[in-house]
Amino acid sequence: MKEGPVIASVAALLGDPARANILTALMDGRALTVSELAEAAGVTLQTASGHLAKLDAANLLTAEKQGRHRYFRLSGPDVAQVLEALMGLAQRTGATRVRTGPKDAALRSARICYDHLAGERGVALLKGAQRQGLIKGEKDMILTEKGRAFFAGFGIDLAQLEKGRRPVCRACLDWSERHSHLGGGLGAALLSRMMDRGWVRREAGRVLAFTCEGTEGFEAAFMLPAVKGSQAA
Amino acid sequence: MKEGPVIASVAALLGDPARANILTALMDGRALTVSELAEAAGVTLQTASGHLAKLDAANLLTAEKQGRHRYFRLSGPDVAQVLEALMGLAQRTGATRVRTGPKDAALRSARICYDHLAGERGVALLKGAQRQGLIKGEKDMILTEKGRAFFAGFGIDLAQLEKGRRPVCRACLDWSERHSHLGGGLGAALLSRMMDRGWVRREAGRVLAFTCEGTEGFEAAFMLPAVKGSQAA
DNA sequence: TTCATAGTTCGATCATAGCCGAAGCATCAG
DNA sequence: CTGATGCTTCGGCTATGATCGAACTATGAA
Question: How is chain A classified by DSSP, letter by letter?
């Protein structure tokens, strides 16, 4: 009966509003300085510094010193995943406010989850890729030959990705939609290429905005029904 | 920048050792009384009652009154899933003690996750079912015709399952293995049938113990390589 | 060098919340 | 009814920890 404290220690870290703000601010995968995080959390620099020390000690964050700045980022995608799961739970159990503002809708449509595309668009991408037979598999997904050709044509260096420790394909449960989207190295590379192409750009916070050409290119590339809704194959 | 508090409120609930003990005690899906939970958490009855009131108010638990007892259970499988995810994170970040006792190994091998089979055996089951073509799909898995016949033959009333609100097949990420196992209504029904057949029985806590015949039947039914390891198809 | 910015550490304050003893309801057995 | 058990509520104690002011260190700029 001693399993509780194990999860309690990490959950308690997420349970402080200031720390939770810090972590959600980092959920887009960027690295931020102590001052930026202090601002995001709404506390003073000293307080933030203390929180960051704790999160770092617990290995939820990794620190990187550059000149007189110290940059923090999430220590891995799994941290972001747990945060998303908690958001989903908070929503289901009604802890979230009803405030469904415009920013909320934008977040649902497309956002960054650590370093890859999430929200309606992210779910659509994975579905499209699977329908086209680019990716196969349930949870530990795998690239098909067709998929390798496709993503290489998209400008992604698969050999490079496969050298890293990070899984290339990874299903990541979306808190707003109730389906998976594509994470892993490939998910990250895809978002990166899409931003290079000017299909999508970052807005405030984690929101992603698709350009007109971006929407067209995206739907054409992944063979999605126009916009959203309509009938699928 | 006001997303933090949303997750903080629920995370804080999981962040207290007593409450975390209560929740992990409920992770096997059973309903327990206030006294039993107080004992599991190592606190007095009054204290536990207070904690339970909070967890209930947050909709993480559901209460059910029966005579002069009050039974609590997790409000849904998603709660158990978040707890498992937190355990996984705690393990990866080193918050867990090195103590890899015998119970720990047993837990890894086979355990109850809410109401279905988890651990090595749970992951093996899903893999076997997929290799045989009983189940198809990535995250929102679907039964094949072959699968319907198989599970019906196993003594499961699929029509009944499909009437419920609960998804029949659901991938559930395993914290010890790093793969999915089968949750949902079908996962629950399967474990139930396996216990009926005497293949497996509950040990202390969440540990499940396979009998000799159980191991044989299990491996035969799902066409698994003997024991563990060996070469797969 | 001097000054400014970024960050850490220390110390004191203060609020929150966990905890238990005691008393109060509610349900059941006799 | 009386008594016993299961649980909740109340009140007070206590400890933890979040917060910020102030002082200190470190890096960079002039």
Answer: ---HHHHHHHHHHHTSHHHHHHHHHTTTS--EEHHHHHHHHTS-HHHHHHHHHHHHHTTSEEEEEETTEEEEEES-HHHHHHHHHHHHHHHHTT-S-S---HHHHHHHHSEEETTEEESHHHHHHHHHHHHTTSEE-SSS-EE-HHHHHHHHHTT--HHHHHHSSS-SSEEEE-SSSSSEEEEHHHHHHHHHHHHHTTSEEE-STTBEEE-HHHHHHHHHHTTPPSSS-S---
